[in-house]
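Human:
If only I could read backbone structure tokens as easily as an amino acid sequence. I am handing you a single protein, as its sequence and its fold in token form. I hope you can help me see how the letters and the tokens relate. Thank you; the sequence and its tokens follow:
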Amino acid sequence: MLTLNSNNRNEKLINFINQSKMKELIKIPPQVVNIEDSLIGALLVEPDFFSEIAGIIKTESFYSDANAIIFETIKKLASTGLSFNVMIVSNELKNSGNLDRAGGIVRVTELAANGSFNADVQFYAKLITEAFVRRQMIAVLADLSNKCYENDEDVENLIFALQKASNELETNFDCVDSGSTTKEVAKETLDEIYSDYEKAKNNQSAGINTGFAKLNQLIGGFKPATFIILAARPGIGKTSVALHFVTTAAKSGKYVNFFTFEMTKPQIFKILIAGEGNIDRINIRDGKLDEFELKKIDRAIRHLEDLPILWNSRRMNIAQLKSAIRKNVRRGKCDMVVIDYLQLIDSTDKRMIREQQIAEISRELKGLSLEFKIPVIALSQLNRLAETEVPQLRHLRESGAIEQDADNVIFIYKEVDGEMNEQSYSLINAKARNGSTGIFEIWHNDQMTRFGNAGENHDYVDFEFISNSHFKPNHNLDDDPF
């Protein structure tokens, strides 16, 4: 066996120490310049973004001096209350003598060209701030480490310096909202109470009408700042029930954002046409239609086309989804969100295990409902145990975080006999943070994809529809809502 003598061992040890020191010297400080570029680009194309990140990030948070200079210029322009764009920012940089330091007109223009209207600027600002704090921590700890080697430095002073530095670093994560006074909260609460009171006097749900009287009674309708899960096994009718929620809300004049990651927009719209026109959806799917059914389809489309629903079928991650919703909220075009379905939303971090990814998505959707004070309804899969049992909370697939985050969990339950003939079709409100749990049967016509309250007369009346007289649809085919 080959052995090393003492001199060889010492030489290798010295080389290892030297290499370790060299690595320490060439370490690049924490930075996310690509995210900085994305944030600056987004601000250049959408000035309204600045108000969302003004209290989160500072000029000194940027690692790139060029980006810091551009951001400072944008901040100065935003403080005037006037709108700005790439040309205005470029001119301001030129007038202040900072255009070359910012990279020149070409770089500023390139940042704007790569800017996205769907950027999650708050997420970008958070990442930039985190990198900034890491750099500060490295500097502070390096300074304190050097002082610790000096025997003449008082230990109590070192501890005090550490605590002071810690407090200063923590201020970078201070929330923009420092809190509300009791009087402000009381007024906001009283406004809600009187609003619900007026609706109750007119036999209306406190929240958005669900389309089912018993569900309205149990949860008070789809209320603001609530996260609702609609869950079932595949093939039970999650999408169809969700579309019933969507059209019911839209027919009352509420703007609904519908995201489908499993079907195309025409596939979804065919389901709506089947229910609205009372046409067999299989015939629509296969094109086996007679002239009378074609006329019914034309009338159904004319009847549906003015509904305030925005459709999106592009695959996206949770950050992109939030950005699209945030954009529509700012434009006054989002009163409710429906997502089909939760497990198909991409995570922002593919390195996490699946349960952690679903937990992150669920937590973000809950936060979304609170941030914009809208109901967010997400469809979800159940595990295989639900095939032979009445659905329960433990059947929610992949993450217990869904149950924890949700304000309401609604299951669809189809009871069948031994020959798989349907015996009943019910909704189960299994969790109610501000309401009551319960199970109730609903009427449905699977062939026509229609739903209603059990026990009511559901004879089809051709195009009986009274729209909200206060809602005025704004059609602009060139106006992409997403």
In short: The CA atoms of residues 175 and 295 lie 57 Å apart.
